[in-house]
Amino acid sequence: MQRRHLLAAGLAATALPGLLRAQSAYPDRPIRMVVPFPPGALTDNLGRAVAERLRAAFNQAVVIENRPGAGTLVGAAQVAKSPPDGYTLMVATSTTLGIAPFLFQNAPIRITDLTGIAMLGNVTLFLVTRPDFPVKSLQELVALLRKSPGRYNFGSPGNGTVHHLVMEMIKARERVSAVHIPYQGSIPALTDVIAGRLDFMFIDASVAVPQMRAGKVKALAVTGSKRSALAPEVPAVAEVFKGLDTQAWQSVAAPNGLPAEIQARLHGEINKALATPEFRQQLAQMGVDANPMTQAEFNDMIRRDAAAWQAVIKQSGAKVD
């Protein structure tokens, strides 16, 4: 028995240097970055921006893989089931790490199946309407919904997204109704708003602002506690409804169990990029306010946000359509 223990210890000691060398050599092949939305909108553009920074830092390809569906959980489940070796990462949103696992019955992952690598920043969402929609403010929208329950519809980039939940919070708070129509991504939803097939929606600033400036949609409000520098004339939701300043955010996550050394390398390189004025400006143009944190701070925030969103889902009665 003692001989077997000594043999096992010897094998482990022999394997350990090889494992440490493999980690210190990371990455020695291309990295896959899963984006849980279709190409072309904020999360995809953000993923490509981060991928380019990691490619330059590591001198390795970082390949974007779009896996939309189920409120980001299709992509998240694929990442969670991947080997925790640093070669599969994802752009994880507040939907992924705070909302969808509680909203979907039989969700394919738990929040603890992923670990937060780096917080990227807070996201600005605009509430926009079709050009001929007969309201000019959030207050007028609520009054119209109260007058005609269930007559109007609103879209979102998918069930369980922050875009969906913020509207559900307003509906629950004001006791009004509107029909939710989920899309796979922001672009097709906004296309239908512009065409008049959809009445209104919350949408990422990077997609909304160009259409606002072109006069193709009307902006009624912006999420968060303050106005956006991208359109300072648009009031914040919290100006109308005190305390309703729910914040969407974007991050990079990996499968749980990723070795600490690799986590530290990824976190360090991403935060190094976030410290540069060029990258911060690139994010600002997308409607993302860079918000670097330590890894411990970020994972603490995930836990707090998840508990808060779970309470919101329960109070609002939001359901997957």
Offer a few descriptive terms:
single chain, 321 residues, D-Maltodextrin-Binding Protein, domain 2, 2 domains, six-stranded mixed sheet, 47% helix, disordered N terminus
Strand order of the largest sheet: 2-1-3-10-4-11
Mean pLDDT: 89
Rg, rounded, reads 21 Å
Number of helices: 12
Helix fraction, binned, reads: 40-55%
What is the distance, rounded to the nearest whole angstrom, between the alpha carbons of the first and last residues?
60 Å
| pLDDT < 50 stretches | 3-9, 11-22
Q: Encode the helix/strand succession as letters.
A: HEHEHEHEEHEHEHEHEHEHHEH
Instruction: Count every beta strand, where a strand is a DSSP E run of 2 or more residues.
Output: 11
Assembly state (oligomeric): single chain
Number of domains: 2
CATH-assigned homologous superfamily of the largest domain: Bordetella uptake gene, domain 1
Architecture (CATH level 2) name of the largest domain: 3-Layer(aba) Sandwich
Strand content: 15-25%
Shape: globular
- Under CATH at level 1, the class of the largest domain stands as Alpha Beta
CATH fold-level label of the largest domain: D-Maltodextrin-Binding Protein, domain 2
Largest sheet: 6 strands, mixed
Structural class: alpha/beta
